[in-house]
Specification:
Radius of gyration: 40 Å
Shape: elongated
Number of helices: 1
Structural class: mainly beta
Largest sheet: 6 strands, antiparallel
Strand content: over 45%
Number of strands: 57
CATH topology of one domain: Methylamine Dehydrogenase, Chain H
CATH superfamily of one domain: YVTN repeat-like/Quinoprotein amine dehydrogenase
Helix content: under 10%
């Protein structure tokens, strides 16, 4: 790119440590009352805000356990994230940032952000940082505390290992760097104004992916062709991983693993859906399917490594300073840790998972105020977990019930697959969930002292629904027997039920139906009447629910080959002569066609019926006629395929 080439050099004037940032840092060093002894944070790890327990939990990825908890007061607003720095942590809400000291593990007074937009958090050496893309502002919460105005809206920030935060200003094309410890911006590089693409990091250096041109430019190097179509919206990883830069192209439902050196990219078919921006670490690339709540990891060749089903609404993956990826539950009740080798572990926060971890003294609430009394005047205590949790499913409706714990309870929170489903003051709730997979339900109780642990989770099995139609029905033919065919099919999704049988229906072209049943996925060859072809074959599955109810699925159908040749009509030659005053004799001679029922009409009245064909000559005597009268004689036959054949009329006069 001209991008990142040094086109001109200037610095952006710094608005040093204005209001909000200054007060945040000042608050971070204010004593928070009587707290516990100093607690050492483990540098690796990740903070998660648990909305159910209104507390922040630190997950030590090395041990895959929670090792610290910070209760968050209501004064901190509605937290979006918790960021960690070298000496402090920060609870970030849209309207305020609240610090907490590592030694006390208690949240200090909030400081207004002065911005009405959701910031992008950046954890890196010298940080953490908040970037406000629409306002064009970068705030360093670390040291030295700094707030910088870029001068216009910026794209998503990226960072390099040396602690530099990089942003791209689309209107002017400027690429600006706020380096670790610096108090001024360096905007000495740029792209063309209005360039379409994304800022990223490749080989540890800032890079520009030009999606219109399909090129990647690292630092001030020459553009390298990516080798695949990237037009339209794309989601670009913050940095490359195993020598590949991950890019999701939603319009194609594809993950592109681009080689910064210009070799042929790897393209992985993800299928249609909504995806989060991919992330890479070690030898792994991770992609989160937002619609299905499914995390998928791949190696550098695009080969799948792991698939982890998460709660819908999960956020991430984000790349931690410790070289791991993190995907957070939407309610913060868990985080999934992806290691550089592709292994993934889900760590639960809150409830029993936080028992015994470092936290502020129990007698002090999150805001430092003792918990209030219950209605009887006694000091309220955090309630225990509800017990006897039970769930009943009826289709997509779940009815959950539980037994209240001892003491005062203000309300209950019902969690469905680690996401808050509802709150209620009753001891039961009705929920809705998808029917095609099992779900886990747990309940917690809350009062003035706080939220208690979650109950033991109860699993509601996937609902049993009607089986799907069998798949791939084929009718294998036998060249030696043109009317023979062997039906076979692939078993369908049985919808959670047990197979009872397959019902196979065969309907000829004449409308004759026969039915057979089997538990296999094929039938022995069926020999039909050649002149009754084609046959329509339908197959459907019948299953039984655990309660004994039978469920019949929709059919799948196929049609056999049509009949061949012209031998499927009854062909008769008709002759008639007088045989007395009131009798005639009719001779019907087979013309070599098919066999079928036939009827003889004399003067418009049916006077005989029987079977014609079979290479036979049929003599029919018809009496009781008027003498000296001329009659018209016609023979009508029904063909095997359901059609009819009529002979030419023959006239005969009685004596």
């Amino acid at each position: 790119m001209r991008a990142l080439a040094t086109l001109r050099s200037h610095t952006v004037t710094l608005l040093v440590t204005i209001g909000a940032v200054a007060s945040v840092v000042a608050a971070a060093v204010v004593a928070t009352g009587s707290g516990p002894p100093s607690v050492s944070f483990r540098e690796p790890g990740h903070w998660v805000y648990n909305r159910i327990e209104r507390a922040a939990f630190h997950v030590d990825a090395g041990t895959r356990r929670v090792d610290a908890r910070v209760d968050v007061p209501s004064s901190a607003g509605d937290p979006l994230a918790v960021l960690q720095g070298h000496r402090q942590g920060f609870v970030v809400a849209r309207e305020a940032v609240s610090p907490f000291a590592r030694a006390a593990l208690a949240v200090g007074a909030p400081a207004p952000t002065g911005h009405d937009e959701v910031p992008v958090g950046v954890e890196v050496v010298g940080g953490p940082y908040l970037a406000y893309p629409q306002a064009g502002t970068i705030v360093r919460l670390g040291e030295p505390p700094t707030s910088v105005e870029v001068g216009g809206p910026v794209g998503t920030p990226v960072h390099t290992a040396d602690g530099t935060v990089w942003v791209h200003r689309p209107d002017t094309g400027e690429v600006c760097a706020l380096r670790s410890g610096a108090v001024t911006l360096d905007c000495a590089a740029s792209t063309a104004p209005g360039a379409v693409g994304a800022l990223t990091v490749a080989g540890g250096r800032p890079a520009w992916l030009d999606t219109a041109a399909g090129t990647l430019t690292i630092d001030s190097g020459a553009p390298v062709a990516v080798g695949t179509d990237l037009t339209g919206p794309v989601l670009v990883g913050q940095a490359d991983g195993p020598g590949r830069l991950p890019v999701v192209v939603p319009g194609r439902g594809a993950l592109v693993l681009a080689d910064p050196r210009g070799s042929t990219p790897v393209v992985v078919d993800l299928g249609p859906g909504r995806y989060a921006a991919p992330a890479a670490v070690g030898s792994v690339v991770a992609v989160l399917d937002l619609d299905r709540g499914r995390l998928r990891t791949f190696d550098a060749t695009g080969a799948p490594l792991r698939t982890v089903d998460l709660a819908p609404g999960a956020t991430g993956p984000t790349r931690g300073e410790d070289g791991r990826l993190y995907v957070d539950d939407p309610q913060g009740t868990a985080t999934t840790v992806v290691e550089p080798d592709g292994s993934a572990t889900t760590v639960t926060t809150g409830g029993t998972a936080s028992a015994g971890v470092a936290r502020a003294v129990a007698e002090v609430s999150a805001g430092g105020t003792p918990a209030g009394p219950d209605p009887d005047g006694a000091t309220a205590v955090v309630p225990r977990a509800p017990t006897a949790v039970a769930v009943k499913r009826q289709g997509d409706v779940l009815t959950v019930s539980w037994r209240a714990p001892a003491g005062v309870v203000d309300h209950y929170t019902v969690v469905l697959d680690r996401a808050v489903a509802t709150t209620t003051t009753a001891t039961s709730a009705t929920l809705h969930s998808t029917v095609d997979r099992p779900v886990r339900v747990a309940v917690s109780a809350t009062n003035a002292a706080g939220t208690g642990p979650l109950s033991a989770a109860v699993t509601a099995s996937a609902a049993v629904v009607r089986p799907a139609a069998p798949v791939g029905l084929t009718l294998a033919t036998d060249a030696g027997r043109p009317a023979a065919f062997a039906p076979s099919w692939t078993a369908p999704d049985l919808g959670g039920g047990d197979l009872v049988r397959y019902e196979v229906s065969l309907i000829s072209a004449t409308g004759v139906r026969t039915t057979r049943t089997t538990t296999a996925t094929s039938l022995p060859p069926v020999t039909g009447e050649p002149c009754a072809a084609p046959y329509t074959v339908s197959v459907r599955a019948v299953t039984r629910t655990p309660g004994g109810r039978l469920l019949t699925g929709p059919p799948t159908t196929a049609t056999s080959a049509p009949r061949s040749g012209s031998g499927c009509a009854v062909r008769m030659a008709l002759a008639a002569k007088a045989d007395g005053d009131d009798t005639i004799t009719v001779t019907a001679t087979d013309g070599g066609g098919a066999t079928g029922p036939c009827a003889l009409s004399v003067g418009g009245e049916i006077r005989w019926s029987g079977t014609c064909g079979d290479r036979a000559r049929t003599r029919i005597a018809v009496g009781g006629l008027d003498s000296e009268t001329t009659y018209t004689v016609v023979l009508t036959a029904r063909n095997p395929d359901g059609t009819t054949t009529r002979t030419d009329p023959v006239s005969v006069t009685t004596d």
